[in-house]
Amino acid sequence: MARIAGVNIPTQKRVEIALTYIHGIGRTKAKELCSKLSIPFERRVNELTDDEVLRIRETIDADFIVEGDLRRETAMNIKRLMDLGCYRGLRHRKGLPVHGQRTHTNARTRKGPARPIAGKKK
């Protein structure tokens, strides 16, 4: 089992797909990485040599912000907005949608499950 950036990536999947299990690497970056290191897209993780795994690991460490560092950076950006007290920070603090979506209906993902209002029925 290959361990890259502190994540055990699945061995039976293609390299391009398996790399997306690392937080911060999506399909585009995974394809970019494979083409940069000249690894065929159809190659499976269990078919990789130790040298190729090492090259992937070194390239990710050098070129990408992934996993804990990325999560920390994102959390710090949100905390900065909240400390500033700007509109986006206030929306984060209240747990409401940040990017201008309507909240009269919908927005259940951010607001949580609907709570009934007492005395509403008549």
TrEMBL record:
Residues 95-122 are annotated as: Disordered. GO terms for molecular function: rRNA binding; structural constituent of ribosome; tRNA binding. One of its GO terms (biological process) is translation. It holds the Pfam family Ribosomal_S13. InterPro entries: Rbsml_uS13_C, Ribosomal_uS13, Ribosomal_uS13-like_H2TH, Ribosomal_uS13_bac-type, Ribosomal_uS13_CS. Keywords: Ribonucleoprotein, Ribosomal protein, RNA-binding, rRNA-binding, tRNA-binding. GO terms for cellular component: cytosol; small ribosomal subunit. The keyword Ribosomal protein applies. Gene3D superfamilies: 1.10.8.50, 30s ribosomal protein s13, domain 2. Belongs to the universal ribosomal protein uS13 family. HAMAP family: Ribosomal_uS13. Located at the top of the head of the 30S subunit, it contacts several helices of the 16S rRNA. In the 70S ribosome it contacts the 23S rRNA (bridge B1a) and protein L5 of the 50S subunit (bridge B1b), connecting the 2 subunits; these bridges are implicated in subunit movement. Contacts the tRNAs in the A and P-sites. Part of the 30S ribosomal subunit. Forms a loose heterodimer with protein S19. Forms two bridges to the 50S subunit in the 70S ribosome. This is Small ribosomal subunit protein uS13. It comes from Oceanibaculum indicum P24.
